[in-house]
Structures are given as structure tokens and as C-alpha cells.
Amino acid sequence: MTQNEKDSVKKKIEEEILLTQEQISALKEKVKPIAPDCSLGRLTRLEAMGEQHMNNKILEESKIKLTRLKNALLRVDKPIFGICIECEEEIGFGRMSIRPESVRCVECASKM
Ligand SMILES: [Zn+2]
Hints:
- Helix content is 66%, strand content 0%.
- Helix 1 packs antiparallel against helix 2.
- It is elongated.
- The chain starts with a helix and ends with a helix.
- The protein is built from four helices and no strands.
- It has helices at residues 3-30, 42-75, 93-98, 106-111.
- It is mostly helical.
- The protein has one domain (3-111): DksA, coiled-coil domain (Four Helix Bundle (Hemerythrin (Met), subunit A)), CATH 1.20.120.
- Zinc ion is lined by residues 84, 86-87, 89, 104-105, 107-108.
């Protein structure tokens, strides 16, 4: 990647970190325990619990993504940034601009 490309990926990482942090705080609100005495009907309550389960899953994934993004931000100025950890080839600007937290190229990631 050229310096310009790295700069734009870095900007992307910073934006994604902010977005992910916002998403995490919004999700934390949603996964608060449902009060047992709430006036919801049984079915509505089951739906609410299902939704909460989903949100918990998304929350866990968001936390992992945030950690990866923060790691990417630490690497972005180093020569190893954008190099696949498996085959040591360049991951390429296309993939890095979509998923800046990537540490593997498309080929190696698909073998996982
Ligand atoms: Zn690779």
C-alpha cells in the first residue's frame, strides 16, 4: 500500500472505532435484564428474550471487532501493516479499506 492508501485506511479505522464504540453502548442498554414483572404478554416476553439473546451476540462480536480495530490502529504505521500473517503477501488496499482489521489476505482467510 502507498502512504496515501495507508492514511485513508487509518482514517477508516478511527471512524470504525467510534462507530463500534457507539454501537456497543447502544447494545449495552438493550441487553439489560428484562424485569420479571413487566406487563408484557408471554409471547412478547419470549420475543423480547430472543431479541436480547441476539443483541448479546452482536455485543460480543462488536467487542471483539473493537479490540481488532484498536490493534490495527497500533500497527498502521508499521511496515507489517497490510501484510498477511500467513503467507506474508500484501493483503491489498481493497480489502484493507473494507475490513481494516484484517490480518490475513482473502485467500488465507478463506482457508481458515
Ligand atoms: Zn495470505
